[in-house]
Specification:
This protein is α/β, with parallel strands linked by helices. Helices cover 54% and strands 8% of the residues. Helix 1 packs antiparallel against helix 4. The longest helix is centred in the first third of the chain and has 25 residues. Bound molecules: adenosine-5'-triphosphate and magnesium ion (MG).
């Protein structure tokens, strides 16, 4: 299509209605082609402004109300694109997101052509909001979620995730015939066992588009909006060129067992989500992978449970994992525990979740820092730092903390007694009953 000279719009009166409308469309095409090739935002910005004023000028001079309405609709599409451009300017739109934005731009262009007269600005605004809301769920590719290896223990779960998601991405040729990769997997287990961190680590390991969704993201108070948001989410996911993961955290808040008391709104949300998950199943070649996480799988509607081809228990950490989780909190702060002290600590923390252990370690690490406030006797370390000591230590010096050079002061090592004190305020949060419930669910689930 011929690109118009957008700067020479002053002779609008001498051209036919059709010509004017086509010129307006050409303006939009010009921007679309620029968006594909350029990342020069100020230049595209300038072009928008020129197009905007050109279409506005054409519209004002236009006596035909139908053409004028069409031009108005084009202006709305332009402003929709402007909001996409703003999001790019805010700096969180990655290269892959740019592709999605352009996909949406083209969709907007088609719609503008086909039904521009019918579209009203409120609808367009909602569509733009919805698009951006879903885009916000896309985790940046540079996310520092660590890798699966950084997560302590959970070897079986990590192995399953690798087989289900990582391998089909890295070795697609292995999954062409009989071995079809799974498309839906549910992680369940007691709170704080690492389901969310597993998903985040997977995202950063995969380096593929990863939509991280919580029920709060999807539930809107606008009637019908949640369903549209779910549709938009899966539409965007499926329009990605390679593999893509949709992670729905705390999926139980969306997919609880249906009841008589349930309102129409949540019923429709569930139906839409089921439909979208079903669609993925039907499209044999689809590369969208749905990962769900919940800490109460028994609350999930059986229709949803059935749709997850694998349900994987994320258990409480075993002995070795507990040691790794505690140690990982002391990369810079020194920890001094003898083997018998480790044994005692690991015995005591049986039944703690990963989150409990993290809190315990943080609480324990505070005791030596707190002691600094009341400490009176200090000594120099071999690397010329100043650390607390007892009054009878050879070469000790007596000062209040405030009189010492701040950058030289270091706390003593964290010891078993600090963990014992910390245990008073940070008990385990997962009851044996909940653990039992998960094992029972796991057994029942493996027989179903
Ligand atoms: N296996 C683990 N290795 C290292 N850290 C862990 C592990 N499990 C849990 N943690 C720690 O516990 C914190 C909470 O984990 P996470 O939020 O993933 O739990 P969750 O299973 O999603 O809990 P919930 O069911 O409540 O959503 C993490 O930030 C992490 O510090
Ligand atoms: Mg979680």
């Amino acid at each position: 299509m011929k690109c118009p000279d957008v700067s020479s719009s002053s002779d609008t009166g001498s051209r036919s209605d059709l010509q004017l409308y086509q010129e307006a469309l050409s303006c939009m095409d010009l921007i679309a082609s620029k968006l594909e090739k350029d990342v020069d935002l100020p230049m595209i910005d300038q072009l928008y402004e020129r197009c905007n004023s050109t279409i506005e000028e054409l519209r004002t001079a236009q006596p035909n109300p139908h053409i004028s309405a069409s031009l108005e609709s084009l202006l709305e599409t332009l402003s929709f694109q402007q909001s996409l451009l703003d999001s790019r300017r805010r700096g969180y739109v990655t290269e892959r997101r740019r592709t999605v934005s352009e996909g949406c731009f083209n969709r907007g262009m088609c719609k503008a052509r086909n039904c521009s007269m019918r579209r009203n600005s409120e609808r367009l605004e909602r569509e733009a909001d919805r698009f951006l809301e879903v885009e916000d769920m896309l985790m940046p590719l540079s996310a520092e979620g660590g890798s699966l290896e950084d997560i302590a223990g959970l070897h079986e779960v990590k192995q399953i995730l690798r087989e289900a998601v990582v391998m089909p991405l890295q070795y697609p040729q292995l999954f062409q015939d009989g071995a079809k990769p799974w498309t839906r997997l549910l992680l369940y287990g007691p709170p704080g066992t690492g389901k969310t961190v597993l998903a985040r680590a997977l995202a950063s390991e995969l380096q593929c588009p990863f939509y991280c969704v919580s029920s709060a993201n999807l539930l809107s108070s606008w009637v019908g909006e949640s369903e549209k948001l779910i549709r938009e989410l899966f539409h965007q996911a499926q329009s990605q060129s390679g593999q893509c993961v949709v992670f729905i955290d705390e999926i139980d808040s969306l997919c609880r067992i249906r009841s008589q008391m349930e309102d129409e709104h949540s019923r429709r949300v569930k139906t839409e989500l089921l439909r979208q998950m079903e669609d993925i199943k039907r499209k044999g070649e689809s590369s969208v992978f749905v990962l769900g996480a919940t800490n109460c799988p028994w609350d999930l509607d059986p229709a949803f449970l059935r749709r997850f081809q694998r349900r994987v228990l994320v258990p409480l950490p075993d002995r070795e994992s507990r040691r790794a989780i505690i140690s990982s909190q002391f990369k810079t702060t020194p920890l001094e525990l003898s083997d018998p002290e480790w044994t005692s600590l690991l015995d005591t923390t049986e039944g703690f979740s990963g989150a409990d252990l993290t809190h315990l370690a943080v609480a324990a690490a505070f005791f030596p820092i707190r002691e600094l406030q009341t400490c009176r006797f200090w000594r120099f370390t071999h690397d010329n730092k100043i650390t607390p000591c007892s009054s009878d230590t050879l070469g000790s010096m007596q000062y209040p903390l405030s009189k010492l050079p701040a950058d030289k002061v270091i706390a003593r090592k964290v010891e078993l007694k600090d963990f014992i004190s910390a245990l008073q305020t940070t008990p385990p949060t997962v009851s044996p009953k909940v653990v039992q419930q998960h094992y029972e669910f796991s057994t029942a689930s493996s027989h179903s």
